[in-house]
UniProtKB/TrEMBL annotation:
Stretches that traverse the bilayer: 58-79
Pfam families in the record: DUF4235
InterPro entries reported for this sequence: DUF4235
Entry keywords, A to Z: Membrane, Transmembrane, Transmembrane helix
Descriptive protein name: Membrane protein
Length: 103
């Protein structure tokens, strides 16, 4: 039994990669939508400033970047954690090595 469990633990990170990729893509999409809605509430504008937008000031551009980064990090962490917990519940094995994570 210990031998089988060891093999499962070695194979799980590789098997989780496509799932992790799909979760990452989904979390990026959700984070982008959440940021657009948040920006619309904050500034009453449909489009957030781009770093190369000549008509926007430094403060507005950096504020938008900070908000976008924070939302992305929270959504990504929530989706990654939910996915890992689902894998653990269904297989009994955590999907990455003990000290592992994406970062």
């Amino acid at each position: 039994m210990a031998k089988k469990n060891k093999k499962t633990k070695k194979k799980m990170p590789l098997a989780y990669k496509p799932i992790g990729f799909a979760l990452g893509w989904t979390s990026g999409t959700v984070a982008g939508m959440a940021f657009q809605k948040t920006w619309k509430v904050i500034k009453k504008e449909d489009n957030a400033p781009d770093a190369l937008d000549r008509d926007r000031g430094w403060g507005e551009i950096l504020l938008a970047a900070a908000i976008q980064g924070a939302i992305f990090a929270v959504v990504r962490s929530a989706v990654d954690r939910a996915g890992a917990k689902a894998i653990e519940r269904s297989t009994g094995t955590w999907p990455v090595p003990d000290q592992g994570g994406r970062d």
